[in-house]
Design a protein that fits this description.
The chain has eight helices and four strands; from the N terminus they run H-H-H-E-E-H-H-H-E-E-H-H. With 272 residues, the protein is mainly α. The strands form two sheets. A two-stranded antiparallel ribbon has the order 1-2. It has a two-stranded antiparallel sheet with strand order 3-4. Helix 2 packs across helix 7 and helix 6 packs antiparallel against helix 7. GO terms for molecular function: electron transfer activity; heme binding; metal ion binding. Its cofactor is heme c. This is Cytochrome c1. Belongs to the cytochrome c family.
Length: 272
């Protein structure tokens, strides 16, 4: 009697395993079909590698490019997009000196108060102030942009998959829609934007749209590269310090590991 019971054990195990895997196997064709559709569909977007100076473990921010990028943001992007996580004093990180920052901040009016009469008032911005918002509130921003809310750009590089490469591609990716593609009213075709239809009109559309103070030729690609560099710095200004600390820690741990191995060999040498 014991032998037949033992023979049933593998059968019972197989039945239990089949019961567990049945839901997974049932969903497998749908999952494979979905993967196949994604692989052969037109929604797979390949973002080109721009090769920024800050790429890689030893990469650093190009300060000249970041300063030009701030100029692009100030003269073009800031008309719609805020950067509320940054203060003017933070621009020392891209190489501006305190006098330049004070002069730059004073060009903007910010709301302050209340004063002694309990009223709000406007004053020239100080280096400690946050970047001025282009609109008083989100409702005003939507009203000025056909219902679309321009996102804050403070950490946009970290918020979008692809980071700076994606932002650069987005800025240079506007083009006429392919034959057979209908763009909805108020939308624009962009080959790198998910769905390819974006409410934002091409912000960088003309060579020389910005006149760089250092004489760099302001092509659309150059302006896109510079503003993406500035936004990458704004999203992670401590990037260089963090990488330098990581390299120092690797060197320290390598030396420590070598010393520990040498001590181990010395301590255990007499036991061989």
């Amino acid at each position: 009697m014991r032998r037949p019971l033992l023979m049933l054990v593998p059968t019972l195990k197989a039945a239990a395993l089949a019961a567990v895997l049945a839901p997974v196997l049932a969903l497998a064709p749908a999952a494979l079909g979905s993967g196949a559709r994604a692989a052969e569909g037109h929604d797979v977007i390949h973002i080109p590698d721009t090769r920024f100076s800050f790429d890689g473990i030893f990469g650093t921010f190009d300060r000249a490019s970041a300063q030009r990028g701030f100029q692009v943001y100030k003269e073009v992007c800031s008309a719609c997009h805020s950067m509320r996580q940054l203060s003017y004093r933070h621009l020392t990180g891209i190489g501006l000196n305190p006098a330049q920052i004070a002069a730059l901040a004073s060009q903007f009016q910010v709301q302050d108060g209340p004063n002694d009469n309990g009223e709000m008032f406007e004053r020239p911005a100080r280096p400690s102030d946050h970047f001025r918002r282009p609109f008083a509130n989100d409702a005003a921003a939507r009203a000025a942009n056909n219902g679309a809310l321009p996102p804050d750009l403070s950490v946009m590089v970290k918020a979008r998959e692809g980071g700076a490469d994606y932002l650069h591609a987005l800025l240079v990716g506007y083009e006429e829609p392919p034959p057979g593609i209908t763009v909805m009213e108020g939308m624009h075709y962009n080959k790198y934007f998910p769905g390819h239809q974006i409410a934002m009109a091409p912000p960088l559309n003309t060579e020389g749209q910005v006149t760089y103070a250092d004489g760099t030729k302001a092509t659309v690609d150059q302006m896109a590269t510079d503003v993406a560099t500035f936004l990458a710095w704004a999203a992670e200004p401590e990037l260089e310090q963090r990488r330098a600390m990581g390299v120092r820690m690797i060197i320290f741990l390598t030396i420590l590991g070598g010393l520990a191995y040498a001590v181990k060999r010395k301590v255990w040498a007499d036991l061989h």
